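<backbone_tokenisation>
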Amino acid sequence: MSKVSLPPGVQVLERGWLSANNVVLFDGERDATLIDSGYVSHAPQTVALVREALDGRQLRRLINTHSHSDHIGGNAALQREFDCTISVPAGIAEAVATWDEAALLLSTAEQLGERFRADDVVCAGDTLEMANLEWQALPAPGHDMDALVFYSADRRTLISGDALWRDGFGILFADVLGSGDGIGAARRTLEAIARLPIDVVIPGHGAPFVEVDDALARAFARLRAFEEDGARMARNAIRACMTFSLLDTRSIALDAVAEQLARVPLYREANERFLGMTFDALADWLVAELLRAGVVRRDGDRLVAA
């Protein structure tokens, strides 16, 4: 991987599974802004990491790229600890204000979150001052239909959230759940990103990277595969979200996997729309996939996160 040079005043706290990356942008010698806050069970760690990165500065503002649990889970803890304001994409403001756990995909995917207060919104087209640079908020629907990315033309840098990773993008929940055209939206988002002069991408997961054209090619290829085979998209969503769940709970009884697949709306909808399997058969496939991928191991009658 090529060497990455971030703009001055930008620091990336690269996180592992469950938590999205936290991007710290230093505003002079006294203040800072943070983009995204990780998962709720990692909130104490997030607070500690952010405090260390601040090095005496004050966290003034926390901004979310979108509403998913691994990006907003530390919001409440950071707000308590640092008394920062929180800005969310305009499209999720009502769901946050009413704490609509289905709209935020918390109950839909059986994930956790802590309610927080959003102080204001960021709209597509807004210009933000962060790290002594101007960043334009751009719409990035697909993975989340209300998501935003942040682009610095001066430094040719994109904070991409889950719209573009080094090797793909986030789950297209709208298609899996039948609530919208996530594939079409993701294609338009990737096309818009491809038109920008970009030297560095700071993704929501994984290390910052400079291989932008290659990442876009991989993302478009993945999108075409999902267009051609909806079952592949559904299996990807089930596998990724169950992995997320297991890394949070650490283990599950083997005979409880089918019940969880039948109970959780995301798995139930994905199966009904694209796979048409019995939940026992779906559980057998999933367990084999997770074992093959090495993300779990079998311990007697339980699956344990590796």
Q: What stands out?
A: The first strand starts at residue 10 and ends at 13. DSSP finds eleven helices and 14 strands in the chain. The CA atoms of residues 246 and 305 lie 6 Å apart.
